[in-house]
Model the fold of this input.
Amino acid sequence: MLKTIMVATRDRARLAEITSVATRFGLDMLLARLGLAKGDNSAAADPPDLPRRTRQAMEALGPTYVKLGQILATRQDLLPEAWIAEFGKLHSDAPTLPFDQLRPRLEAVLGEPVETAFARFDTAPLAAASMAQVHRATLTDGQEVVVKIRRPGIRKAMEADLRLITHLAGIVEASSREARRFQPQALVQQLLDTVLEELDFTQEGRNADRLREDLADNPAVVIPAIHWTYCAETVLVMDYIDGVPPRDGDALRTAGIDPVAIADLGAALVLDMVLVHGRFHGDPHPGNLLCLPGDRLALLDLGLIGHVSARRRQEFLSFILSLRSGDARTLADTLLVWSKASAPDPGRVLDAAEQLVARHGSGPLVLTRMVADFFPLLRKEGLVLPPDLALIFKALITMDGVLGAIQPGFDLSQALQKARGRLVMNQVAAAHAPEKTVALLLELSRIADDAPRLLRALTHRLEADTTPVAPSRPDNGSKWIAAAILAAGALIAAAQYWG
Done:
């Protein structure tokens, strides 16, 4: 079917390339299962090397498919561990480009030659990825920086891939019952949002500024400063930070950095980002973190930032706290809210929650161990998490793994206990934010303006309604009375508040 899908002429060459790569890596069974090719699409067990071959094909197809695989690596509620492990290996490394191929783009942004814009510029790359290449430089004021330059032609290529993937997702969702559970169109929307955001380097710069503002009260957290006069959609210039990646405790101790202090800081940081500020680093692996003298922690590579609504923060906190307190029913209620799109059976969800509490409701909360039980239970019961929650779990698991590597036996539940008071106070403050009070008063004002009309309508309805009412069931008239009483009480309370 791949060869016969109707696509725009401009994308046919890319479709032919995708077909060729899929064939080269022997993905016929996978394509048939997704409804994209003829063949055996039965539920037979996957060949043991199918996840590896799929990951290799994604790497061969380039950055868009690497990003798709990285998103799938967050979906432990959908995919077995073998697939998650392979997609977790996806990387965006790429061959380096000669700087002469990047110079025109950089100088177009700078408006002058590289040699005059910088006091020093290293033409040998510091790092290279599929979307960009990074070089070290020194500004004319002496500040050491890194310069991130987008690869030429990458936007056009990725936009073609996104068009094709969007088209294919619609076909998959319509033709494959098994794939429908994966909500392919929702996954593709997440991919679209991620790729389009990461292609615009000014978005990464804004992410850095927002996180720096969020975490301004914590001097132990460092976010590189962005030098906006040098930046554009295709170029990002930020402070160079030299530090030690948090891969093992001995390396940190050798550098004069306390692993215990870094573990405590990292735990408090990720909880603050997710549960207090609602904005968090989407991939805090050791390559994106640096430990600095003074037991400080720097966050790098801020292209992927997750966002958590206030409601979702409350739900996630309820999930963790109900697990820790052994409250299986509240835990099940949260799971039902999260997975309502998959129409789960409440009794089976409660059974799953009780199993989770029995295994992890006491003792240290080792997130990786809990998740090793949690996600198979979700798959067994057919529960599918919303994409934003999947990214939260991925970020927490990644950070938990980092902290466990530098401080064996690290217990995230202790960090949560320490943070509980701060989290509650933040929620109380948010509930009483001035803008919310103003919004409430504006709504009450509208109700007050409508009160005479509402009371006249209520009186008319009560006079006209002669239908007998069962004692055990409140009638519509009593509902109107209740609404009127509530509105009147709210108006009186507001008058007293502002009186």
Residues 434-464 form the longest helix (31 residues). The chain has three domains: 2-92+166-172, 244-432, 434-498. Confidence is low (pLDDT under 50) at residues 468-475, 478-482, 492-499.
